[in-house]
Amino acid sequence: MGKDETAESIEYGANNKRIVFTDNDHRHAKLLIRLRHDGLQQAQFFRHLITGYIDGDERIQDFVDSIKPQSQVKKVKSKKARQQGLTAQRELGLDEQQVDNIFDLIAREHPEL
User: Fold this and answer.
1) How far apart are the first and last CA of the chain?
2) Residues 56-64: contacts with CB within 8 Å, 24+ apart?
3) What are the Cα distances from residue 93, in Å, to 59, 76, 84, 102?
4) Which residues contact 61 (CB under 8 A, 6 or more apart)?
5) What is the 3-state secondary structure (H, E, C) of the chain?
6) CA-to-CA distance for 65 and 23, rounded, in angstroms?
7) Percentage helix, strand, coil for the chain under 3-state DSSP, each rounded to 5
8) What CA–CA distance (Å, rounded) separates 104 from 113?
9) 106, 113 contact by CB (below 8 A)
10) pTM of the model
11) What is the pLDDT tens value at each position of the chain, 113 positions in all?
């Protein structure tokens, strides 16, 4: 931190970070061709994927479940639990903020969980 900056003066989430990884030139070229075909920019594409992953988009989560190192039995259980949670959320008429509030309340009441 600079001389005039304190931890309190830095606004969390306002600082941009670079997310970088490498791949070979052939795959990069194929990615650019597909992106151009779909009318997307590379940064735009990755930001949307990251947002979907962070927000728990079930289409992205299904893909992540298919590639993450996990036994087939655990994958099936995880998918079933997620589906039951979504069904319960719809049946109760809860939006995402309300669900987050419930989990925050549980975390405060039972920090050991």
Assistant:
1) 35
2) 58/82, 58/86
3) 21, 26, 14, 13
4) 53, 82
5) CCCCCCHHHCCCCCCCCCCCCCCCHHHHHHHHHHHHHHCCCHHHHHHHHHHHHHHCCHHHHHHHHHHCCCCHHHHHHHHHHHHHHHHHHHHHCCCHHHHHHHHHHHHHHCCCC
6) 22
7) 65, 0, 35
8) 12
9) yes
10) 0.55
11) 555 556 567 787 888 899 999 999 999 999 999 999 999 999 999 999 999 999 989 899 889 888 888 666 776 777 777 777 778 777 788 777 777 777 777 778 777 76
One-letter amino acid for residue 8 of the chain: E
Closest to 49 (Cα-Cα) out of 23, 19, 29: 19
> Can you read off the two tokens belonging to residue 21?
């990884």
Structure tokens at 37: 């075909």
Number of H helices, E strands in the chain: 5, 0
Structure tokens at 59: 């289409």
